[in-house]
Amino acid sequence: MREENINRITSEFLLSNELLNNMAVTPESPVAQKEYTKIPRISEAFKHRLVKTDKSLASKVIMFDIENRVVLVGKSSFFKWKIFSPSGDKVGELVRNFYGSEYLLSSNTTTECFIKYVNVYSNAGPRIFHVYKNQLLPEQNGKHNKTISERVKNKTNQYVKLINKPPYFNYDTNSFVLNFNGRVTLPSARNFQVVHPKDVSYITLTFGKIAHNEYILDYSYPWCALDAFSVALTSFSWRFGL
Predict the structure, then answer these.
(1) What pLDDT digit, counting tens, does each position of 58-71 carry?
(2) CATH code at 121?
(3) Total structural domains within the chain
(4) In terms of C-beta density within 10 A (0-12 exposed, 13-18 middle, 19 or more buried), how is residue 22 classed?
């Protein structure tokens, strides 16, 4: 069972990276001249449920699939989340900076993810964040001289960028809202959806509250379980100014 779980998670990483090649942006193909591949539609997303528990200064978040089987477990410390498989093997680590504005996911495979909140110093308006995902380029065999966070800061364009969908202001409720099509049942500042900036109508990830310390996490192309779980974990972390 332990080997089966690790193989399942690893296969998701490989599939995700293979799909991301179609969205690759490289120095040889500048963003201004890049002809973006049409994003494939997936009729059904992977649906999961997250349950959060708090003990002393630490938190634990468990990710369940639709059959109520444990997929991943996240355990917090002051500046990081350690992520484990159901059998207890460590499969990744999500490290944050002091302000809680940047998060870097590293794992036992080639997957890598960088999440950046861009309005941490302001309480005005909804949360805004960008997600930068690593992609495997055949000529690089999945290896880069710099981490994805360094490539983002240097604007090398060797990554795939996703954004959280901007909510619209509802004058009836005097609040910012998103359409979750009934999947999310409780209002929360943590609720969000992730889209590709070239097609904001295509929702790739949905996260939202359904009960006390209970949330849903739905994702499709181009996400794998570890990346999607990591983005959700950032919503539970303390951030300066929020």
Answers:
(1) 899 999 999 999 99
(2) 3.20.90.10
(3) 1
(4) middle
